[in-house]
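Predict the 3D structure for this chain.
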Amino acid sequence: METTEQLKDMIRQKYGEIALQDKDDNQASCCGSGCCSIETANIMTDDYNTLEGYNPDADLGLGCGLPTQFAQIRKGDVVIDLGSGAGNDCFIARAETGDTGKVIGIDFTPAMIDKARANAEKLNFHNVEFRQGDIEKMPVTSNIADVIISNCVLNLVPNKYGVFREIHRVLKPGGHFSISDIVLIGELPGKIRQAAEMYAGCVSGAIQKETYLELMVANGFKTVTIQKEKNIHIPDDILARYLTTEEISAFRHSGTGIYSITVFAEK
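Done. Predicted structure below.
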């Protein structure tokens, strides 16, 4: 049984490697399309191309939603991105908050921080900052953020309760978050889960949707609202390595599955 620190070290090492890869490789190795299917459409990622502030150099293809699109960011806001990677969501948030706001990205992988800072320097952004740190113990003071965003990150964190407690600490009174993440509905059969984790590594730390939402309420958040939800479709040719045709059909009609959700809540 791996300890929390061992899990974190494994994730840090994995994402350090991902920071040095190109987008196509990353989409195959984590929250992307998968490398071994005849179905080529991404199962996790959404299209950022229409969003102002999008920078292809900062897009590693690791997200599972578009939290910035739903985050209700206003001019002058202080925005914090949890698990900021190469800076993709931070730069889109910066387009929303403008020159008078501030965006802080937090990531605990040194290679990601280096890549994000290099991207910010190329863009000549002086109000976008990247800090290395653990989102269970954010390197920021209390009551500082108007908005917190995160994209397909909390599912990787062992102590999700602790992260939501930190989000509550860091948000200003009346502040809010918009978070995209992977959750489960129903218990996945062992062979289904094995196939899903082969195809999209982000599934391994996902918890039940109901439990995920309860963690927010337990930490004092109100007006918890699902802004977007989509089913994560695992292609039949992947499932066929683990299941019979009858088992695949039963799974498709069971209501059990893997979902990407984007959730809003207020402090």
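Residues 26-35, 38-42 have pLDDT under 50 and may be disordered.
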